[in-house]
Amino acid sequence: MRLLLVSGNEGKFREFREALGRRGHRLEWKRFPYPEVQSASLDEVVGEALAWLRARLGESEPFMIDDSGLFVPALNDFPGVFSAYVLRTVGNPGMLRLMEGVGDRRARFEARLGLWSRETGQRIFPGRVDGRIGTEARGAGGFGFDPIFVPEGRDRTFAEISVEEKNSFSHRGRAVAALLDFLEGRAGR
Fold first, then answer.
1. Which pLDDT belongs to residue 60?
2. Other beta carbons within 10 Å of 111
3. What stretches in the chain show pLDDT beneath 50?
């Protein structure tokens, strides 16, 4: 299947292209800015964006978007849906400063992958991975908060592992797996 990813984030495109390509799907990238509603719910952010994009892109080809966030319980789940803004303004050094002296370093990444196509309508697929905030940034791969996020049961950050390994268990990888199960299950009907 051919899909269009609407995103300004090249790192997300690379991850999605690798994951979908392994299963024979072709992904193309379209940089097309869209508004993100201010909400504490990733589902609401993605749902509103899908509707807005559908009105502007039309209904001729299936497209997908992604919204994700880093949720830190010790910070009342901050930055959450505001992760992109926090990353732009204070970055990983700022997040590490916020965590100075904090004993509970648990964190989770959550993703919502939104799909729209004429055949399926609007669908949202969730993904989540638990872990912790490291004490320093490590690794040159990945993007965003990857250098400070250590997935549960591992000792390396997302930025220290390959895209293929990350996709096998990350929040985005799990959302893609749910999307693929849905798409391939529909094709078998």
1. 83
2. 24
3. 189
